[in-house]
Structures are given as C-alpha cells and as structure tokens.
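Dear Dr. L.,

I hope this message finds you well. Following up on our conversation about the binding site, I have prepared a predicted three-dimensional model of the protein together with 2-acetamido-2-deoxy-beta-D-glucopyranose. For your records, I am including the exact sequence and ligand specification that went into the calculation, followed by the structure tokens. Please feel free to forward this to your student if that is useful.
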Amino acid sequence: MATSGGAWSWALCYWSIFTQVWIVFAAEEILLDTRSMSTLGGWTTYPVSDRGGWIEVSNINSDGHPVRTYQVCQVRREDQNNWLRAEWIPKRQGRRIYVEIKFSIRECRDIPNVVSCKETFDLYYFESDYPDATDDSPAWNDRTYTKVDRIAADGRFSHVNTEIINTEVRDIGPIFKRGFYLAFQDSGACISLLSVRVYYKVCPTITEHYAIFNKTVTGPSITSLVQAEGQCIPNSEPVGRQPTVQCTGTGEWTLFTGSCRCLPGYEPQRTVAQRCDVPKIFSVLSMVQVKVKSIYGCVCVGLRTTIVAMVTGRFSVKNAEQSS
Ligand SMILES: *[C@@H]1O[C@H](CO)[C@@H](O)[C@H](O)[C@H]1NC(C)=O
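The resulting structure of the complex is given below.
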C-alpha cells in the first residue's frame, strides 16, 4: 500500500508533458425544470384556456410524482393558432441556452372526424430584461417572437400505440437581455407537453496538473472555446507560465497547457500539496535508498530539487541546483 502510493506520487511528480488533450465531461446549470414545479402559474396561453387552445393538466410522471403539463387538441376547426408562453426565465450566466422538451403527439389518422390536423409545433423565444410580458404583449405572432424550430415527433401515439414520449433538445442564443420567454405555437395538433427543461452548460471545477480550474460557463456558440486560467493547488507553483485550459461549447475541458509542481518538501494529495510524510510513504523505498546511499528525486519536488536520503532514515530537502 505504502509502496504503491509512493510510486504513484513519484510518477506524478515527474510528469513532464506540458500540453495534452484531456476531456472532462459537462455539467448543466438548470434555469427551469417543470418536473420539479408544483404549479405553472406563471405560464400564459393565447387564446385563454376556456376559449380553446392550451390547457393546464395535472399528470403523474413515470416516477409516480405529480407534475403539471400543458395539452392542446383543436382538430375540429380550421386555422388554429394557439400559443403557450412559459414564465420569464433569467439567463443568469448562460450564453448558449438549451431547451429540452418532452412531449407526445397523437397520430392524426388515429383521430376520427378531424377537420385539420398537424403533427408538429413551433418553438419560439422572446428576449426581455424583466418579467413584464402580459396577456397580450408581446404580440402573439412569429414576427415578435424569434422562431427556434418546427418540432416534429419521432414517434406518435395512437389508440394501439400509447405512451410514446419524444425528447427534443434545441439550443438558442446568445441571449443579450437578462432573460427570455419561451413560447410554443400549435397550429392544430394533439400535443401533450410533458416537461420543459432549460439549462446552460458549464465546464465543472476540476483539479488537473496540480492546478484548480474554476467552473466556467461555455461560450455563445457550440464551437466557442473559452480559456480558463488555473490556480496552482496550495503549496505548489507553476512550471513556467500559468496553466490554462479551454472550455468547449459542449462543456468539456480540453487542451490543457502548463502545469504546477509541489514546492520543495511537499507532495501531491489530489487538491493540495502536503508536507512530505517521508517515513510513511517511502518506508520501503527509503530503506532501499538508504542501503545504496544514493540520491533520488522525491515526489514532492520538481526537476530542480531532490531529497537526499540520510543514513538515519530522516530526510532533508536540498536544492539540486544549489548543491551542484
Ligand atoms: C476560483 O474561484 C475562487 C473562489 O471563488 C477564487 O478565489 C479564485 O480566485 C478563482 N480562481 C481563478 C483562477 O479565477
């Protein structure tokens, strides 16, 4: 145990690769998730629900929890134009925003006596600094709202084929104002909007090459790279210039450059450099070294410094440059 720990630390400290590709996976910062909301009271419909259009419905999700959903199914009349607008969503630090929609759509040919029937809906957003939208403002049309996409169901349900849930994710942005509204336009489909989850991606805090890289929000586009500077873990120092890393648009860290090394007399312990506990970690190694009385490099020290094994079994830190 002691030997393998020591050998591992040793290997780490002699790390001399200064640039490499390394992927660490993304995290999401949630801005809205209807699955954890007991009410969708801030949502607005046009026309108002008792004149047709979208209606709020209580449902039980697959885990047995009550959830609020919206449904619409106006297939008996032509020219449907039913809008549903989510509450105002502050973007916080988000630049590119992701919208995950779970929904089901009924197959048109499965519905008797349809006058007009669609199997898609349209997703829009509207930027706004404040939650100041009203029942009739912004105007309910595709010129005021910015269209994201027409969303079709991969699977549609029918009387023989129930419980087909579609999941679609779209990304929007960059958003320039403090927040935005999402809107769903129905033109005559039978839709159940089961959940809406809105989030942005971040590269999570990590410690790599003995440097701490803080959580970093992804850039405004999928191809953006956002550079983050690392801070050396306590009791360590940069090797050359400050370590850097790039946060990709999808929330992964990549292209690390530089690294840190422990100060003389310290050894790496995940997120901190600790004072060398030589007798414990190197007990086996040091015995060997003491026997041959040779000088060896310690985990704790970089290329400049070595630890000299003393016959007593105690160690002192010496700077190789000074001693040479
Ligand atoms: C990382 O975050 C901590 C705590 O918020 C802060 O003290 C530190 O300066 C940040 N590091 C960098 C490199 O920005």
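In brief: The pocket of 2-acetamido-2-deoxy-beta-D-glucopyranose is lined by residues 214, 229, 231 (CB under 6 Å).

With kind regards,
A. P.
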